[in-house]
Amino acid sequence: MDNLEILQAQQTVYRKYSVPSKAIKPCVNYILARNPKSKIFTPNDHVYLIATELRRIGEEKQKATITLKAWNNGNSQALRLNELNGIIDHAYSKNYTYGCNRLIVREQCPDKENCTYCKGLYPRKRRRNESDFYKHSWQRILTPSQICLYHGLIEIEKIQKLIPGELIIATLPAREIP
């Protein structure tokens, strides 16, 4: 997505919901503007993400409820009103914010390479290496199978270009039915 499309999405969100879209993370702005379909996440996940972001930027719960009701009405998979209110209540009862390392956020990020939240606010962690393992004497604490798992996870992080400690999702291959 180029800068023009990102700016258009910001303007759409501001006109449609009267939300200060420049304060919102681009991924949440994208969800509000485009209402994208996801193979992994449900509308409940998107509502919770939007609600926590609105709480983060200081929107009152009543304003967030109005915004999310309007967003939900334009959603092909609209949630029931009591379900929507329950998610908003939960989001406003906790002091939680989604970080850019969460899959739900990364999936909707329109510009991962240039996003100030991904790059500036969440600096990349240094990759661990073999010397760190021995420097901290983990080989004395862990069992042989745990050591093997540790090294395997590091290799998976390298192959998938993940941040150290980031969530790794593993799927089982489809079984062939005889």
Features:
about 180 residues, mainly alpha, 2 domains
Write structural notes for this entry.
The protein is mainly alpha-helical. It folds into two domains: 3-120, no CATH class; 125-178, no CATH class. It is 58% helix and 0% strand. The chain has ten helices and no strands. The protein has helices spanning 3-17, 26-34, 43-56, 61-73, 81-93, 103-108, 116-121, 130-135, 138-141, 144-160. The radius of gyration is 20 Å and the shape is elongated.
On the 0-100 scale, what is the average pLDDT? Answer: 76
- Roughly how many Å apart are the termini? 44 Å
Largest sheet descriptor: none
- Global geometry: elongated
β-sheet strand percentage: under 5%
List the helices and strands and how they pair.
Blueprint: H1 3-17, H2 26-34, H3 43-56, H4 61-73, H5 81-93, H6 103-108, H7 116-121, H8 130-135, H9 138-141, H10 144-160
Helix pairs in contact: 1-2, 3-4, 3-5, 4-5
Short précis:
Helices cover 58% and strands 0% of the residues. The chain has 178 residues and is mainly α.
